[in-house]
Specification:
single chain, 13 helices, globular, FAD/NAD-bd_sf, FAD_mOase_fung
């Protein structure tokens, strides 16, 4: 195929969608990003934790100085129980620094979005379109067409669904799969209608950083059925409170102010930090707050036809390990690398730098991408679930581990070193040059191209 009309339609303009924009811009491939919200950069949402696997990709894209200026490093979590009693600090993040060359960093969603937006060239920024709620997707042998609620349509070669846990693209992908000819009532290539299970709900609260909370504080409160995490920035702090539900569900939920009030009635007495503020006080002083379900799961199929899913659209974690956004960023890297291989093969074979892969080769790249990521993502999802279970003392074993294992730094270091080789296998873009800014005890399996290290 020798057409110059390859175009990717990215649905979802969050951190993962904008990372996809960077990946396509760096590959000199045409794209458009469709975001349902009224602005690409909004002052909304909770804070995010950037782990070394995500930071390294952002560093490769030249964004690390801006990230460091807008975020706070995390070296440890202080841990207390519901009575405010000390459970012992955990040094997971210190060992991340030793093993991989960087502390995790806490950053507001707004600041990360602004950095990702501003890091794109002007011509790429012009392809980020807000107020574009996708309502329909049609896929053919020739390409894909997306229709939006405002009546606009966009035609391209592939669709990348980066639109989160409640993904419209995922739903539309299932519809396309169900409409395909099949000998069974539900084709094997169709995902479940409700693929994620919710065991926990969450309230997040943003409030001013005031004494006894200091900038840079990171703390967790553990106990039966409820845990919280505090991340304190220079001006504002965020807590995420995770409550075990009465019964797991696959149904979604929209929470109201009355639901928030009931949540605070149940858990407002819990301490946010040792010897200090309660959840109720943080909620009273809030600048923003919200409630959501914490879905968990990994889809069986991450693509169908010309449609492929990344990030929370394909897999969802509880927030306890901070791994969700990072794995979405790495998804984009893995997908971009597989497409890069497909493009390079066809261009070398045809001797034409404008050629792009046919449909079969694109589908092959999609399949390879899922194979590269599936086991790692599944392990990450299970690890996050175990962490939330331990922090909410879901059973006697989890309570014992939380109180007596995670308080022993020698054991924490053992487990951190045991998982380090897996983290060190995390990929970077094969076609983007940069410098290796993160060097630890465990060398990265894939060096950054053009690295000076």
């Amino acid at each position: 195929m020798t057409s110059k009309t390859f175009k990717a339609i990215v649905v979802g303009g969050g951190p993962v969608g904008l990372t996809a924009a960077h990946s396509l811009s760096r590959a000199n491939l045409d794209f458009v990003v469709l975001e349902r919200r009224p602005k690409i950069v909004l002052d909304a949402g909770s804070n995010l934790v950037l782990l070394p696997i995500g930071l390294r990709v952002l560093s490769q894209l030249g964004l690390l100085p801006a990230i460091e200026a807008a975020s706070s490093p995390m070296s440890r979590f202080k841990r207390i129980d519901h009575e405010g009693k000390d459970l012992g600090d955990t040094l997971w993040f210190t060992y991340f620094k030793e093993n991989h060359g960087a502390y995790p960093r806490v950053i507001s969603r707004h600041d990360l979005m602004q950095i990702l937006h501003d890091g794109l060239p002007a011509e790429a920024q012009a392809k980020l379109l807000p107020n574009k709620k996708v309502t329909e997707i049609n896929s053919t042998d020739e390409g894909v067409t997306v229709t939006c609620a405002d009546g606009s349509t966009y035609t391209g070669t592939i669709i990348v669904g980066a639109d989160g846990a409640h993904s419209t693209v995922r739903s539309q992908m299932r519809t396309v799969a169900l409409q395909a000819p099949s000998t069974s009532s539900v084709p094997a290539s169709a995902n479940e209608e409700k693929p994620f299970l919710t065991t926990y709900r969450s309230m997040w609260i943003r409030f001013p950083t005031v004494s006894p909370i200091n900038p840079g504080d990171a703390s967790e409160t553990h106990g039966y059925d409820c845990t919280l995490q505090l991340f304190a920035g220079e001006d504002t702090s965020v807590i995420g409170i995770y409550e075990r539900m009465e019964k797991p569900t696959r149904d979604g939920a929209r929470y109201t102010e009355a639901d928030e009030a009931a949540f605070i009635e149940r858990w407002g007495h819990l301490p946010v930090i040792a010897g200090g503020m309660s959840i109720a006080q943080a909620y009273k002083d809030r600048t923003q707050a919200g409630m959501v379900n914490l879905e968990e799961g990994v889809l069986r199929h991450w693509s169908y036809d010309r449609i492929v899913l990344v990030g929370d659209a394909a897999h969802k974690f509880t927030p306890s390990t901070g791994a969700g956004c990072n794995n979405g960023i790495v998804d984009v890297v893995a997908l971009a690398n597989e497409l890069y291989h497909a493009f390079r093969a066809v261009r070398e074979a045809e001797g034409d730098e404008t050629a792009f892969p046919d449909k079969d080769k694109i589908l092959g790249a999609f399949n390879e991408y899922q194979q590269v990521r599936f086991d790692t993502v599944t392990d990450g999802m299970n690890g996050a679930s175990r962490a939330t279970g331990a922090a909410t003392w879901s059973d006697a074993t989890h309570r014992f581990v939380d109180r007596h294992i995670l308080s022993k730094q020698s054991l924490v270091k053992f487990f951190a070193n045991r998982t380090a080789p897996v983290m060190a296998k995390s990929p970077v873009f094969e076609y983007v040059k940069g410098e290796e800014t993160m060097v630890g005890k465990f060398p990265w399996a894939q060096p950054i191209k053009g690295s000076l290290s």
